[in-house]
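Reading is simple: each integer encodes one residue's backbone shape. An example follows:

___
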Amino acid sequence: MNVHIRRMEKSDVDEVIKLETLSYGEHHWSKESFYNELANNLAHYYCAVTEEKKLIGYAGCWHIFEEAHITTLSVHPEHRKQGVAQLLLFQIIDDCYKNKIKYITLEVRESNIAAISLYEKNGFKSIGTRKGYYQDNNENALIMFTENIWYEKFKTLYNKLHQEFQTR
């Protein structure tokens, strides 16, 4: 499957909301939330689309000084475990390098083992817990953070993952 990552546009929001509903049920972001994010100068949002122009994933983050905070990342259930989330994460990291960002952080549900594994594989470490963070079920969130992405250790891991991904 050939997937292209591009900037999210306002015209994508209806499809993003459909995917939001699939991924998060009734406790998902609203259209207005996405429109606000797209108008926010700190926000960087991306879509994963197939050759047929079908939106199958999206991700977003905020750039605040030398830190990026991943706000959301979701892949259509039919396209999970196919590398789409990895491509979206590569895009976020590439964008961080272009914008001289040093650290990347996020929150993830403690029960979301697939996402935690993806982030750990990409050099994120859990540095704490936000108790009762998710409003729908009061689930805790792990706070995950990278070391400085400009450090050789992180860059080596990133380059290795990128190379492995391209040769698979």
